[in-house]
Write a structure and sequence with these properties.
With 439 residues, the chain is α+β, with helices and mostly antiparallel strands. The chain has a single domain, classed as FAD/NAD(P)-binding domain, CATH 3.50.50. 35% of the residues lie in helices and 21% in strands. It is built from 14 helices and 18 strands. It has helices at residues 19-32, 58-67, 70-76, 115-124, 173-180, 192-196, 212-218, 269-273, 281-288, 317-320, 329-345, 354-383, 395-408, 418-432; strands at residues 11-15, 37-41, 53-56, 88-91, 99-103, 111-114, 130-133, 138-143, 149-153, 158-161, 163-166, 199-211, 232-237, 242-250, 264-266, 294-300, 308-309, 312-314. The strands form five sheets. It has a six-stranded mixed beta sheet, with helices on both faces. It has a five-stranded antiparallel beta sheet with strand order 13-14-12-16-15. Strands 8-9-10 form a three-stranded antiparallel beta sheet. α11 (329-345) runs parallel beside α14 (418-432) and α12 runs antiparallel to α14 (418-432). The longest helix has 30 residues, at 354-383. The protein is globular and about 70 Å long. InterPro entries: FAD-bd, FAD/NAD-bd_sf, FAD_monoxygenase. This is FAD-binding domain-containing protein. Residues 11-178, 309-375 form the FAD-binding domain.
Length: 439
């Protein structure tokens, strides 16, 4: 006799139609068909995304292939040229001209993609079992004695679901409610705000997407037209017609504090240019192309002790919002969605044991995503290092040490791929339910 339950499948509510939320809906639909109904709630009146470019690493590509969206992604992604030797690192804090520090030659060069392109493609693949609803900003949820969950939205409407997944980003209402309603024996009450509220890193990020043609008119041989700049970072998107530029300004004394005010705002080009007045002309030219740049207070989610509780789970930035120095946040959200979607869609998963599937997702994904977040932050510190206190005769030695450290930081991408994560997750689910590999 098969151990597969005859219980019906269930209803899943996903709060947040960003990259993670959309990908989860696509994954559930792909692997479960119409067996699971999905309510996808978006707080705004359209599906859009913050930020501009993302890197499509080999890990991210594997997830895209499994979800069946890779071919569409390939058509809009900007691929490295066949002659590319990898990102170029320059020492640029030199007013009369910087120099090429070193070139990193990774085994697999990532392509780049505009975030909105990924959002638009994911939306095209939403299954017929998914209902997408706009202007639905979750404020809180309540768990019922029956196990169902009542969602409360800012427009005073409510809805009921069996499983709730918070893909609602850095300022997640799902995360906030989850930790505020946990029993004291699960989490220390004094740590609730530490887990529910974002933490400022002390870094401001200035972002802009500029036309490649505009930069080419200033300098047709500008290095940013050919690849990457650090620690202003730039890379091409939209088949090379646009250049995504990110400039960082950090005050380490403010790391870990709460940020007051709007965390995203439009600023003047002069505010962006001022911290880089001592940098080489190539950097100044890049920043001179900024029009209506945005300033982001770089916030992260403090390392959480758990990502699920009962029938509620967290995904993507709601769970592990990280610094952008690996350009891995979107990729990690996609990996979350792939593993969680397959677990929810698994033939063994029923309403009676769905909490076991969520716990398996947490055990497989949370440690790795938090590892990536820690290492991304470390990479940022390496890229920000200051040479002003280094004796002149020791500069080259210090540069060589820093180069080796930076190159080593990218070795994580060669670790087990998301397919391996899924196989581990399936094995853990089977073990938790006392089922053999053959079901």
């Amino acid at each position: 006799m098969s151990l597969l339950s005859t219980n019906p499948k269930f209803r899943v509510a996903i709060c947040g139609a960003g990259i993670g939320g959309l990908a989860l809906a696509v994954a559930i639909g792909k692997f479960a068909g119409r067996d699971i109904h999905i309510d996808l709630y978006e707080a705004h009146d359209t599906v859009t995304t913050a930020g501009s470019g993302i890197a499509v690493s080999n890990r991210t590509s594997e997830v895209m292939k499994e979800l069946g969206i890779y071919e569409d992604i390939s058509r809009v992604a900007t691929k490295p040229s066949s002659s590319s030797d990898g990102p170029t690192y320059r020492r640029s804090k030199m007013p009369h001209g910087g120099f090429k520090w070193f070139q990193h030659n990774p085994k697999l060069m990532p392509s780049s993609l505009h975030r909105q392109d990924l959002i638009d493609i994911l939306r095209q693949y939403l299954p017929s079992s998914c209902s997408l609803q706009f202007n639905k900003r979750l404020t809180r949820y309540d768990k019922q004695s029956s196990g169902s969950i009542i969602l409360h939205f800012a427009d005073d409407s409510t809805s009921t679901t069996d499983v709730l997944i918070g893909a609602d980003g850095l300022h997640s209402s799902v995360r906030k409610t989850l930790f505020e309603t946990l029993d004291e024996d699960v989490v220390d009450p004094s740590k609730i705000r530490h887990y529910s509220d974002p933490s400022w890193t002390g870094t401001f990020i200035y972002r802009n997407v500029i036309p490649a043609k505009k930069l080419s008119e200033l300098d047709p041989n500008h290095v940013a037209l050919k690849g990457f700049l650090l620690h202003v970072v730039s890379y091409p998107v939209a088949q090379g017609t646009l250049i995504n530029v990110v400039a960082y300004v950090t005050d380490e004394e403010k790391a870990g504090t709460s940020f007051e005010g709007h965390w995203v705002s439009t600023v003047s080009p002069e505010e962006v240019q001022e911290p880089y007045r001592d940098f080489e002309p190539a950097v100044k030219q890049l920043l001179e192309c900024f029009e209506n740049p945005s300033r982001w207070a770089l916030q992260v989610v403090n390392e959480l002790p758990l990502a699920v509780y009962d029938r509620v789970g967290l995904l993507g930035d709601a769970c592990h919002a990280m610094t952008p120095f690996y350009a891995a946040g979107a990729g990690q959200a996609l990996e979350d969605a792939f593993v969680l979607g397959r677990l929810l869609a698994h033939p063994l998963t029923t309403l009676d044991n769905v909490s076991a599937a969520l716990k398996t997702y947490q055990d497989v994904r949370l440690p790795f995503a938090q590892f990536v977040a820690r290492e991304s932050a470390r990479t940022g510190r390496l890229l920000n290092f200051d040479m002003s206190s280094v004796a002149r005769e020791d500069v080259q030695k210090e540069l060589d040490i820093q180069r080796e450290k930076i190159v080593a930081q990218w070795e994580w991408e060669s670790k087990d791929c998301p397919i391996d994560e899924w196989l581990e997750a399936e094995r853990k689910l089977q073990e938790s339910l006392g089922v053999s590999n053959g079901l």
